[in-house]
Amino acid sequence: MNPQPSPGAAALPPASLSRTMRIATGSLGIALAVLGLKLGAWWLTGSVALFADALESVVNVAAALAALLAVRLAAVPPDANHPYGHTKAEYISAVLEGALIVVAALVILHEAWMVFLAPRAPEHAPLGLAVSAVATLCNFLWARLLFREGRQARSPALLADGKHLMADVVTSLGVLLGVAGVALTGLLWLDPLLAALTALNILWSGGRLVRESVSGLMDEAVDAELLGRIRAAVSAHAAGALEAHDLRTRHAGRLVFIQFHLVVPGGMTVDAAHDICDRIEAALKAEIEGAIITIHVEPEGKAKHHGVPVL
Q1: DSSP letters of the chain?
Q2: Which of 73, 81, 254, 293 has the least C-beta neighbours within 10 A?
Q3: How far apart are CA 27 and CA 223, in angstroms?
Q4: What are the beta bridge partners of residue 297?
Q5: CA dist., res. 14 & res. 291, Å (int)
Q6: pLDDT tens string for the chain (311 positions)?
Q7: Distance from C-alpha of 95 to C-alpha of 84, rounded to nearest angstrom
Q8: β 291-299/255-264 pair status
């Protein structure tokens, strides 16, 4: 008994999709606006730390593009050539993000070294800091909205974008305090130091984004917390079966693929075994959004006495 993935499994409800699409498009617009503000703050002050903060916003633009792509792809249902959907295509954005991250970090480090060799005081610091503060506030407010909407729509893409944006807010606050410190104390070496630290933060946070994308391409299993929820749901809703073993999982975008063998008494009818499978599938889909489940039913002689006991 090997149920095929549901044809509509990858699609979001129309109303939810429409709202999520608007939010994802808004994220891109906010990211571009913030990038413009931060570039303006750098242009006003000449601070290499503010320049680094502006280049970090390039990564935010790439992340917003990735989120928008992910939401669009979630609307495309499986077809004859792609029976498991199109969600893996979103990982292609990792190539763009990775390139932008490396280029941005190298440019920042180069500029920081040049300023370290020839220190210069920031110009028009109060105005530049005010512009950067407005950009940071925009990021903070939008990140809060992304968290709320992402949880409501159960959208991993929006939640991930919100987390990345909030990390950028923390970095920006550090840069603002540092540049203010340079202006107040005259310690010019603080400016390139902050820029270098920002470059390292870009590499770290950007590398994490790329790593998450690569894990999807490599069919990585779900994390331990989600695996525990899967095992608990199977155990709680498999009354009548004897055992579930050979549980395997992988994720692709918002989809989670789950497959396992379900051992039932040898004399059980096909209808009865199918009812158990339906009950388990319903429980897993209620617990995990985007779950695609395949259950292979076996007679009791195939029991391995390990895996998920369901007695």
Answers
A1: --PPPPTTTTPPPHHHHHHHHHHHHHHHHHHHHHHHHHHHHHHHH--HHHHHHHHHHHHHHHHHHHHHHHHHHHTS---SS-TT-SGGGGGGHHHHHHHHHHHHHHHHHHHHHHHHHS--PPSSHHHHHHHHHHHHHHHHHHHHHHHHHHHHHT-HHHHHHHHHHHHHHHHHHHHHHHHHHHHHH--TTHHHHHHHHHHHHHHHHHHHHHHHHHHHHTTPPPPHHHHHHHHHHHHHT-BTB-EEEEEEEEEETTEEEEEEEEEE-TT--HHHHHHHHHHHHHHHHHHSTTEEEEEEEEEGGG--S-SEE--
A2: 81
A3: 27
A4: 262
A5: 19
A6: 444 444 444 444 555 567 777 888 888 899 899 999 999 998 988 888 888 888 878 877 877 787 777 677 766 777 888 887 777 766 666 666 666 677 777 877 877 788 788 777 778 888 888 998 999 999 999 989 988 887 776 666 677 778 778 877 877 888 888 888 888 888 888 888 887 887 787 777 767 767 766 776 777 888 899 999 999 999 999 999 999 999 999 987 668 899 999 999 988 999 999 999 999 999 999 999 889 999 999 998 887 766 556 54
A7: 23
A8: parallel
Structure tokens at 11: 């699609």
Other beta carbons within 10 Å of 120: 12
- Six-digit token string for 99: 């390139």
Q: Which two tokens stand for residue 212?
A: 């998450």
Name the residue type at position 286.
Answer: A
Buried b (16+ CB within 10 A) or exposed e, 27-44: bbebbeebbebbbbbbeb
Look-up: residue for tokens 């319903």?
Answer: 282
